[in-house]
Amino acid sequence: MNSLLDRLNSAQREAVLHMDGPLLMLAGPGSGKTRVITHRIAHMIQQGVPAWSILGLTFTNKAADEMKHRLKTLVGDSHLWMGTFHSFCARLLRRYSRLVGLPENFTIYDADDAEMALKAAVKLAEVELTHITIGQLAQQISRLKNRLVTPEMLLGNAVSHDEHLIARVYPIYQQYLLRSAAVDFDDLLMHSAIMLRTSPDLRAELDRGYKYILVDEYQDTNSAQYAIIKSMSIDYPNLAVTGDPDQSIYGWRGANLNNILNFEKDFPKTKVIRLEENYRSTPEILSAADVLIQNNQRRKAKNLQATRPSGSKVRLRTYGSGRDEANDIVQQIMTACQQNGSALRDFAVLYRTNAQSRLMEVALRKAGLGYLMIGGFQFYQRKEIKDLLSYLHLLHNPSDDVAFQRVINTPPRGLGKQTLLNLEELARKHGVSLLEGAELAIDRLKLTAKAKKSLVEFLKLMDLMREESKGRLVDLLQTLITKIDYRNYLQKVRREEVDADVMENIDELLADAAELDNQELDGNPLEVFLEQAALYSETDRFDSEADRVNLMTLHAAKGLEFPYVFIIAVEQDILPHRRCREDPLQMEEERRLLFVGMTRAKEELQLSCAKSRSFRGNQNISAASMFLMELPRAEMHISDLTEQWDAYADSWDNDDTAFGDFFDRHFGSDDEVSPQRASANSKKKTATDDDLGFDQHFDQGSADVETWEDPNTSKRNTRLPTGNDRVAELLAANKLKTANDLGEDSAVAQQIPAEAFRVNAIVSHPTYGSGKITSASGKGLRRTVTVEFFGDGLSRSFVLKFAKLTLESAD
DNA sequence: GATGTTCCATTTTTT
DNA sequence: ATGGAACATC
Q: What is the DSSP code (8-state) at residue A508?
């Protein structure tokens, strides 16, 4: 049994040996936390603690599975409950649903379903969503729920317009969910917490039952989760939590850092153990991450100790474009695989937002390398899967109005908007679900023959499925697919392209069902199937046997490790995300996010940014992230691979419209221009010919790595004039005359961009009067514009250098 | 009511 | 770029 304690350092051993009383493990990245947890449980079991009295709560199913797996190798099969908060709560609610007014066959709505329900609620509440989107509203309500704020608590407390709106919609949303016998993700926690609060007997029973509770990633728990754990740790405060405040990255989801910061106060006589030795990363990687995180104000200092031998320097790379970035990384991966026999699965590419995966995917596919993308559009969110599952949901829970809505006319069976509206009204009048409403409708609603027939058929289908649901899940699904001729419908909806994928997804769903059919289950298979789908996340099955490059967001990477890590698009407005700019707290969370990403790496780490990146279809100039300026750059390997930049710039030169847009975006808007942007632009322009000297304003410093400045500080100090500013100024001063004035030796010329003469600008000509520029091309004085004159409606072309054109208005 | 077309916002991160 | 919603047409 002492083998359990072998190969543990003293702090780890102390944690493993701790049994009774609260325990706080402050575990830095790579400090062997999972190992400590599993060994500790194994130790407890060996000491005679019954496994079923231990409750392990994790953040992802993946983490739970991993621990279960490791535990199995230590003590064999054991019957402890280890899972996510959400699945634990789901289980709790299934058993005690009546305590919160739900039937036990309630449905768990995913974000999509919840949004549909919210939309319905907004409609019922008869409010107008003017300046807030449905998504924002959903998030606000989610935050309230995470803080255990019920609709009643909101009454009379609303001050702002938003608060009034929420106070109005939130209760109706909750009602809607209740009537649909459904809960959203947040409800799982909130209902559980409330249930524990209002049922002292149940609380005491669970407290007694789960004598030992263990919470992983405690820094990411929110108030609802706190309430749940706390209430089960009163009589038996054997609560052990592990976490790292520096890895708190779910503040936006209501995670409350105070949970971990105040743990010692909360639970008297807490034993605190710090795990600061890092067994994962090279000293280079660890030190870079450590230097970065020290820029956070709101943290507890900690002393990360590297234990591994020195490795290669952390790389910091600048690319010309996101495409170059992706290609180079793929190149590096291939080289590494060839030269030192690395496997593809040793590599991870991490990014801030899911959208950033695309370029990597393209590059990997082009190179013929397999990849595994975690997150993004998830399997269970695909239309074809959701459609089919909605039928099952409706079958399992006939009150599920969201499922009904999704399913009733998919595939189209002639039940249109108006019919559905009538049906809805009928159901509401009778206080019944939509499905029941449908039954009523057949007699009570005047329907077209077709609609009536469809409704009858639909109800017959549901009956048939009800019959079938006693058998195997696969058969049920198969019957459904055949009856509604679903594959044919899909083929029609998505013409030609990618229908192979779609069909594969359906097959995969069938396979999932078949797999479940073969398992021994302690519950209703249909229910288990649906719940799995609802609480499943892609992160959970990331380590498939296949050898592939891993692609995922920084959030999804939490808790994982890889020999080689690339963090891409470390750029201003992406890695500190745009939405976090003003909020220092959110800014710190962004920094922690990068910290988490960096500390995933074992051997090698590369951070990169690109100077231009396409966003929503067009190329934008990017500035390096302020976080890169905070890194110990002297100790890193820095390289600037922007030689492709000029090639990109040239492609713009050939396309004047594109350049016009570019100009607008960077000089014509009121946005402040960072030095990076400005010099990037000047670099581009000086590469061409006869400029107007406009650049001189900007041509200070190159964008080379050595001159990287903190974009935040420099932005504030140097508000650069924009093209429009200057034109407006000169127009006002009546100094802007004709294009001739833009001649080389004209004083004004130094300041007027010929590009000011662009499409839609109003100009006037001594002979033809005024007109509008309808097209423009060329640079500088050779610029040619076509003007459509208001007088005779005719178009004429001019070369700026020679024509006497006067700019009347810039746009 | 179904199908086709255009326009529009949209994207932070996830159980 | 892309998919959804609003609008138009069959």
A: H
